[in-house]
Amino acid sequence: MDSKLELAQDKFIERIGKLCDNFGFNRFIAQLYAVLYLSDKPLSLDEIVEKLKVSKGNVSVNIRVLENWGAVNSVWVKGSRKDYYEANLDVKSFMLRKIKEVMKRRLDETSDIVDGFKDMIRAQGANETEEEKRVKTIFEDRLKKIEELKSFATTALTLVDKFV
Asked: Which CATH class, in words, describes the domain spanning 3-89?
């Protein structure tokens, strides 16, 4: 490959890693996927290791993660005993599925936090002062707003199904 093209490819892989890192995804997994995405042929673990200059163990573990996401597929290459992989080029499909999965987990965590806080508020004794009642009302009002946001986000996630 021409050195200018290789440099461009390296910059793309680096920047995709940083971009995904900013969105909370593992930088190395994004770079690993980018290598396969840009490749015009299936790559062996050894070829990926050479391209990324990382350990084979690191590539092997993270390629399994990408397989579980549906982002890469293991392919058979005639005449070789090595494992080869190619990218699922339908980025939209597997990324929307992954984003939905992460968001659902975060929304469930939010519910747990809100429910736990509500339980603590309810556990407040009957001998509340006027100030404690006022603060409790503020807490309950703000929790309702969080629940409304969670409900909106949950509804938005159902729309993702139409695009996956």
From this structure: mainly alpha
Burial status of residue 3 (CB atoms within 10 A of its CB: 0-12, 13-18, 19 or more) = exposed
The structure tokens listed for 63 are: 């390629």
CA distance 88 to 80: 22
Distance CA(64)–CA(61), nearest Å, equals 5
How is the chain split into domains, by residue range?
3-89, 92-160
Element (H, E) at 161: none
Q: What angle do CA 55, 60, 64 make, to 5 degrees?
A: 150
User: pTM to 2 decimals?
Assistant: 0.75
For the stretch 8-53, pLDDT in tens is 999 999 999 999 888 888 999 999 999 999 999 999 999 999 999 9
